[in-house]
Amino acid sequence: MAFDNSFWALIGLILFFVLVAYLKAPSKLTQTLDRRAQRIRNELAEAQALKEESKRQLAEYQRRRREAETEARDIVAAAQREAAALVDEARQKSEDYVARRTQIAEQKIAQAEADAIAEVRSTAVDIAVNAATRIIAERNVGGDTRLLDQSIEDVRRRLN
């Protein structure tokens, strides 16, 4: 009997299947594919968990950013209110200072007027006393000087 190439190919195929069955290649291939499928499932689950975690972190960062923006607006508003209060306080102090200085100036002017009036009166009294002294001296040329001194003192007392 002559064996042709087809026969040997069949024998080779049968031996290949026997060898594959003997080495349990289908179960090992299945196990390898199952392990790979499980590893892919685990990676997908981990990727999903990371995605959820990143979404939570993004939401947290956005919340913090909104809070920081709100806080920054509050700080700016507080600073503006404080600046306005400082400006008002400075304006009030300036107005008070001007009012005090005006009052002091008015008091100095009133004092200067009072001093001027007192000086004018004093000068007027001195002039009146000198005039009275001359008049009395002229009338009382040879007389008593005691009456003259008493009259001068009386004029001074009445004018001051």
TrEMBL record:
Keywords: ATP synthesis, Cell membrane, CF(0), Coiled coil, Hydrogen ion transport, Ion transport, Membrane, Transmembrane, Transmembrane helix, Transport. Signal peptide: none annotated. The chain crosses the membrane at residues 6-25. One of its GO terms (cellular component) is proton-transporting ATP synthase complex. It comes from the Bacteria. It is a single-pass membrane protein. It is found in: Cell inner membrane; Cell membrane. Residues 30-96 form a coiled coil. It holds the Pfam family ATP-synt_B. Its main location: membrane. One of its GO terms (molecular function) is proton-transporting ATPase activity, rotational mechanism. F(1)F(0) ATP synthase produces ATP from ADP in the presence of a proton or sodium gradient. F-type ATPases consist of two structural domains, F(1) containing the extramembraneous catalytic core and F(0) containing the membrane proton channel, linked together by a central stalk and a peripheral stalk. During catalysis, ATP synthesis in the catalytic domain of F(1) is coupled via a rotary mechanism of the central stalk subunits to proton translocation. Component of the F(0) channel, it forms part of the peripheral stalk, linking F(1) to F(0). The b'-subunit is a diverged and duplicated form of b found in plants and photosynthetic bacteria. F-type ATPases have 2 components, F(1) - the catalytic core - and F(0) - the membrane proton channel. F(1) has five subunits: alpha(3), beta(3), gamma(1), delta(1), epsilon(1). F(0) has three main subunits: a(1), b(2) and c(10-14). The alpha and beta chains form an alternating ring which encloses part of the gamma chain. F(1) is attached to F(0) by a central stalk formed by the gamma and epsilon chains, while a peripheral stalk is formed by the delta and b chains. Belongs to the ATPase B chain family. NCBIfam families: PRK09173.1. This is ATP synthase subunit b. It comes from Aureimonas jatrophae. The gene is atpF.
